[in-house]
From TrEMBL:
Pfam families: TonB_dep_Rec_b-barrel. Residues 197-215 have a biased composition (Basic and acidic residues). PANTHER family: TONB-DEPENDENT OUTER MEMBRANE RECEPTOR, TONB-DEPENDENT RECEPTOR YNCD-RELATED. GO terms for cellular component: cell outer membrane. Transmembrane segments: none annotated. It is found in: Cell outer membrane. Residues 1-23, 182-227 are annotated as: Disordered. One of its GO terms (biological process) is siderophore transmembrane transport. This is TonB-dependent receptor yncD.
């Protein structure tokens, strides 16, 4: 699977003039141009290793580049601010993000009713930023960061009937900061300072559906758990 796209955004924010006078403020107008593309390739093999097994190996690659500029949301007319107009440049940067995730998935049919799914992904994410707006009081916010994590997951399923099964699953997730989060921090600073979040989860339940798959009931008596 392949995809590509482009996004252009201009946003005027209702920020008063006073905060924008700070040398480090990015202004009240966001001017953003973003390009993104990606590919997910995989190879699947079905065979037997004492029991029927399906093996899938794949590679997921994505990259995104953006040019982010900021402007004041006013111009001065006869000594007074006139809002709703694009004013002086206050931000100019190029951001680049890309990830490479190789993964392996397996499905084991242990018996006619019992199956095991297990897999692992190694997620690597890189972020790079070049700051082109450097003035007194507004230093160089260029920087880079990278995040890497092994992400295992597994699920055990037992078919009570052809239309009713119970399951138990567990896994680990990995959530990195987005480009927006890295660009706009709560302390009005920017730069790749945020750290990723790792989620550990497990849940179980049962699922019923009619023979024609027109309806389904999904219950989770074992709640999702994160930490």
């Amino acid at each position: 699977m392949m995809y590509a796209g482009e996004r252009e955004t201009t946003q005027f924010q209702s920020i008063p003039r006073a905060p924008q006078l700070k040398p480090s403020h990015a202004g009240g107008v966001i001017d953003l141009t973003r390009h993104y593309q990606g590919i997910d390739t995989r190879l699947t093999h079905r065979g037997e290793l004492l029991v029927p097994v399906t093996l899938t190996a794949g590679l997921d690659y994505e990259n995104m580049s953006e040019r982010r500029k900021g402007y004041e949301n006013f111009v001065m007319v006869n000594g007074a601010p006139q809002y709703g107009e694009q004013g002086a440049l206050r931000r100019n940067e190029r951001n680049l993000m890309w990830n490479v995730d190789p993964y392996l998935q397996t499905q084991w049919q242990l018996t006619d009713k019992l199956s095991l799914d297990a897999g692992v992904r190694y997620s690597s994410v890189w972020f790079d930023s070049n700051d082109y707006y450097i003035t007194p009081g507004n230093g160089d916010d260029s920087g880079d960061a990278s995040y890497h994590k092994w992400l295992p997951a597994g699920s055990l399923k037992y078919a009570l009937t052809d239309a009713w099964n119970v399951y138990l699953s567990a896994g680990r997730g990995f959530e990195t900061p987005t480009i927006n989060e890295l660009s706009y921090r709560s302390d009005n600073q920017s730069g790749p300072q945020l750290r990723p979040e790792t989620l550990h989860q497990r849940h179980g339940g049962d699922r019923q559906q009619d023979a024609d798959r027109q309806w389904a009931v999904h219950r989770r008596p074992v709640p999702d758990q994160y930490r």
